[in-house]
Amino acid sequence: MERKYSQQLLTSMLERQHVINENGLDILIKPIPETDEPGVLDPRFYQSMESILKGFKGMLVKMMLKGSRKKNIQKSAAQMRKMMNGVNSIPISEGVDVRHATVQNGDVAVPVRIYTSQKKNGELQPVFYYIHGGGFVAGGPEVVEDMCKLVVANTGCVSIQVDYRLAPENPYPAGLDDCYTVLKWIYAHAEEFNGDPNRICISGDSAGGNLATVCAMKDRDEGTQMVKAQALLYPSVDAAGMQEHMKRRDVYEISPSQEKEIRSILDLLSGGLGTVGLGEYLGVPDDTIPHVSPLRGDLKGMPPTIILFGEYDFLRIEDDAYALKLKESGVKVKTVRYKGLSHGFADQVGVTPQAEDSLIEIGNFMLENV
Prior knowledge:
Number of domains: 1
Number of helices: 11
Radius of gyration: 19 Å
Number of strands: 10
Largest sheet: 10 strands, mixed
Strand order of the largest sheet: 1-2-10-9-8-7-5-6-4-3
Shape: globular
CATH topology: Rossmann fold
Helix content: 40-55%
CATH class: Alpha Beta
CATH superfamily: Alpha/Beta hydrolase fold, catalytic domain
Oligomer: single chain
Order of helices and strands: HEEHHEEEHEHEHEHHHEHEH
């Protein structure tokens, strides 16, 4: 299918992108393709904002209903699944094969999908291991399938994504255990599907970004050195501090012409997601532990990292902090900020130019670092 935007919009971003330095951290700024006006929303996001706000208002209502905390968590999880489980992309990649498999994690059969290029050259290829987002309670392989296919089409790599168990039905660390078990399986079996076990890049968006970087942390701690790079799309990295981060407004540049709309997005997200902490969804009593809030852990020895997020993402503050701490810990890090965007744009492959651009950035970073 054809993209819903012209190639010129991708070119416009590339020609006008630039690097700034904030608090000692270099950040690659990706402009809105059509404008350099500061403090405004991307026009595609602006048009979709009404449905986004409606969905989050519904989720907030579920959270605030009278009843037990457990029931409210279950209701809000159900609402999040209604919001997040739809496919927002259109297929634009050709020449990619998909097959299904399962990986045993004890008594649990964990589904995985394996994406390979039809253009094989006989050499082992890098492995792009992807973990979907969805607040630890929602999302699924279908939502991010076109993302994986695009990276394969662009780079010739092998991509694998995991359908891990979700909270609250499966409390922490069930989902993390599934993801880490699949990482070890990939390392052991990569050559069977033309993948190079010594060139693994782990990646994920939002909650999936959390699981990806925690898997890399576990790999580092165990000395197994399976992960050679990580690509994190607007990752959740500080569950313990999320509610405090989301109250801040001083970091956001907001034009008076769109102040009402932008503040509505930030206020609703902080109000809705701040009502029930991620630790409660996950069923973990201490959400300050590094395997839930990796920002609070030791980051020395982590693999080369690329972090990408939107200007108005409610996770921007913790993502900035994570990138800076990685840099200060001696880790190679590339930080990319997309002007005019909020949370969750990368699964809109073929719909928004920024989604495609972010996956081009990730593919290039993978090839340069694994």
